Amino acid sequence: MLRYEAASTASPARAWSLLARPDRWHEWAPHVRGARGLGHPEVRAGARGEGSLVAIEIHAPRALETVLRVSYGPIVARLVANLARAAERRPAG
Q1: What's the DSSP call for residue 62?
Q2: Using CA atoms, how far apart are residues 41 and 73, in angstroms rounded to an integer?
Q3: Number of domains composing the chain
Q4: Mean pLDDT value across residues 35-53
């Protein structure tokens, strides 16, 4: 499993409003236009605590994880940081 995370001063509601709505993913990941099978119009909430920690986990066969860690991992890390920053500057909703 690969895990990428970024701390944010934004409330969980702000970060969740960007992460939970696939139709808003382009605001922090310009190349992504949405997702299927995660719920509609929102994915399920799981946020907890003060502030928020945005994390994305990628599950893949072990051999593929190595390739993803080197090739796509730095991009995912950057996108998670973008999401954390976007949540800090946008109102919830």
Answers
A1: H
A2: 27
A3: 1
A4: 62
**pLDDT tens column, 65-91:** 999 999 999 999 999 999 888 888 866
29 sits in the region (left: phi over 0; alpha: psi -120 to 50; else beta) called: beta
* Residue 25 neighbours by CB under 8 Å, 6+ apart: 18, 19, 32, 33, 34, 35
Contacts of 43 (CB under 8 A, 6+ apart): 19, 20, 22, 35
Band of pLDDT at residue 51, cut at 50, 70 and 90: low
β-strand partners of 58? 2
Give the Cα separation of 54 and 71 in Å (integer).
Answer: 21
Q: Per the confidence metrics, is the pTM higher than 0.70? A: no
Q: How far apart are CA 81 and CA 7, in angstroms?
A: 8
Domain holding 49, by residue range, is 2-89
